[in-house]
Structure formats: structure tokens, C-alpha cells
Amino acid sequence: QVQLVESGGGLVQAGGSLTLSCAASGSISSINSMAWYRQAPGNKRELVAAITSGGSTRYADSVKGRFTISRDNAKNTVYLQMNSLKPEDTAVYYCKLEGVRRIGAQGWYVYWGQGTQVTVSS
With contact defined as beta carbons under 8 Å apart, do 16 and 81 qualify? Predict the structure, then answer.
């Protein structure tokens, strides 16, 4: 079993900062990609940022220069540092783990976090 626990969401004024974290626990051997997605009401879920096990990153154009994704492989945790937040960043943020190898199991797995609300007031 693998569990994901997200934290760090909340209410912040425009221009403020928040840091999200997503910690995975359980029978994990390795994790290829860790990512953050978000979904605003009425919108499709979209990729915000992703990071590979080697540290390569990619970002949505809308967050480049404002958000930073990082990971701690020893803790199986991914972070999203969000600066200069805008009202349009308001959404539920989800972490996603791809290419998860589980101890004692075959194959690769994908896991989603439960989501954490980020609200940016103007």
C-alpha cells in the first residue's frame, strides 16, 4: 500500500506565497516522476509542474518564474513553492506520482493525492 499526504494549502492574498508538500509512504522502492496538477471549478485538471528522479523540471507557462518544484528522494516527498500568487492560481492542487516501483510488486504504478485547496484573494 502507498499513501500520499498533501499539506500546505490555504488562503493567501495576491502577491503572497505558499509551499505545498506531498509525502508518500508505504512499500515504495523508487519514484520516477513527481508532479503537481491543479483544477479550478469548471476547468479541466492541468499540469502545473513536474520533476523527474534526475531532477529535470518542467512548468506550465502560467507559473514559470513564480513556482518552483523540488523533491526529496530520501523522504519520497515533492514540494511546490508558490510565489507571487495570483487570484487565477486559485484551485485544488493535486500531487501525482508516476512510475512508482513498489517493493515486492511487479510493474509501475500511478498515485494521486487527495488534493489541497489554494485560494488567492485579490
Answer: no
